Amino acid sequence: MVIKVFIANQSGSTAIKKKQQDVLGFLEANKIDFKEMDIAAHEENRKWMRENVPGEKRPQNGIPLPPQIFNDEQYCGDFESFFNAKEDNGVYAFLGLTPPPGSKDEEEVDES
Fold first, then answer.
1. Which residue of 21, 36, 55, 79 lies most exposed, with the fewest beta carbons within 10 A?
2. pLDDT score for 27
3. Count of other CB atoms within 10 angstroms of residue 109
4. Radius of gyration of the chain (CA)
């Protein structure tokens, strides 16, 4: 399984850049393998992302903005969903990954 984070390296929006950095920084810090998928430089990445974000997760204008997160072909969510999972110590579940031993995610799985 590969976590794919769809980003725009050429984004003019400071807010989008910050959200992308938050997601990528968290994944790097927690040694979660991921692949950056640039939608600004690669039209096929942009097209794939737009086609695979579920309809109920699209903004009113219909065009999802980066970052968008997938586990292989499975949609995980956008920045807001990621942020909420991070606040609830549920990022591994959000990403569809098994939490590592000793993580807060693992403790919550053991308690259920």
1. 55
2. 97
3. 14
4. 14
Distance, CA of 102 to CA of 34 (rounded, Å)? 21
pLDDT by residue for the chain (112 residues), tens digit each?
Answer: 799 999 999 888 999 999 999 999 999 999 999 999 999 999 999 999 999 999 888 888 888 999 999 999 999 999 999 999 999 999 999 999 998 887 777 655 555 5
Phi, psi at residue 4, to the nearest 5°? Answer: -115, 125
Residue 24: C-alpha distances to residues 3, 21, 47, 53, 55 (Å): 11, 5, 21, 19, 25
The answer to whether the bond into 67 is cis (omega within 30° of 0) is yes
State how far the Cα of 65 lies from the Cα of 18, in Å rounded to an integer: 13
Who contacts 82 (Cβ-Cβ below 8 Å, separation ≥6)?
23, 67, 69, 76, 91, 94
